[in-house]
Amino acid sequence: MKYKDYYATLGVARDADEAAIKSAYRKLARKYHPDVSTEKNAEERFKEVSEAYETLRDAEKRAAYDELGTHAQGQDFRPPPDWGSAFGAGAPGGAGGEGFDDIDLADLFAGFGRARGARAANAPIPGRDYEAAVRIPFEAAYHGTELELDLGGASIDDEGRVRRVSRPVKLRIPRGVVDGQRLRVPGKGGEGLRGGPAGDLYLDIRVDDHPLYRVDGTDIHVDLPLAPWEAALGATVKLPTPAGSVELKVPAGARAGQKLRLKGRGIARASGNGDLYAVVTIVMPTVIDERARELYAELAKASTFDPRPQFGGS
Amino acid sequence: MQPELVDALFIDDAHRFTITEIVHITGLAAADVTVLVECGAIAPQDPGAAAWTFPAGSVDVARRARALRDEFALDDVHAVAIIVRFEQRMRTLEREIATLRARLG
Predict the structure, then answer these.
(1) Which of A158, A162, B9, B41 satisfies CB 3.0 to 4.6 Å to B84 for a cystine?
(2) What are the beta bridge partners of residue A214?
(3) How many other β-carbons are positioned within 10 Å of the β-carbon of residue B28?
């Protein structure tokens, strides 16, 4: 496995005390936390500093990390024989220490704490809850979808040995999820120890914007462009909806900004679907030929309509 | 072998969580959960009840408080609760902006 110099990551000396390590981490967290950082690669850097702090803040993990010795950043290395047994963490991989190549340094410390607790109490330990951010297209959110995630990572067996495993899971996302919604997948979190139940998986759903549809709660809005004569005389137009196109009867005298409601064609909900609103916009042709110009001139002459009454006479 | 297909579920807004359950799920201490209540970040269903219960949304808020505390190495849960309140206000404003954008086109 590759060596990671956690002290260098935090910018502290190897004999730094707890307070110095915490202070260094806080500065870097403020700089790289994805919620507040504008730095390039902030998320990746935050993961690095978090991993370093997670190990160095814990006295036992730090002692175990120091026992690994000093190596160059990124250097291939193996823990000394019997490493970890002094800390109750068990050996990485199998009894012969095989499988180092596919283990991340952080995996070595994944069993700490939990293995200590298990040894002390011999009680079942529930698995941790996992969280995953998932981005899906609008259509997938509207209709529901299936997707596959790999929840792989470090797995701890009952002897506290660490293995890196792949855990593919296929998820059915229900229809009607909206951006920012959270879903729960029971039992797909971290494995429990000593017969403890598995944790749950929580999904933070992000839905891509759609070029036509705008979501407002459980309602959907779509612009309905009309030619001036369609708005004036009424028309039957083809309107796209997420469930397929419909023929929409536009009443005569439609105005810009007016909303035509299609009940129940919004986002699906057990308590009742939202609605879809076609929002009228009036669109002028970009090229007006001579005949159209004549007709507009005739209309201008015949009409007494004042579009600017608030200006007090034109 | 294809992995088994499992359902992702809407979080049941009708379920009520005890402080003990919130502590178990989030890793916060019971005293921390009380601080979140005192700062208005979460609210029990019935503040006058002998044993408080909380709606599902409170678990998410408590989970977020725990994440902020750990990710920024904050010692003061009271400060964390205040940050959570600001975040809640920010999310409300973001939703209002999205609603207005949808209506205005």
Answers:
(1) B41
(2) A221
(3) 22
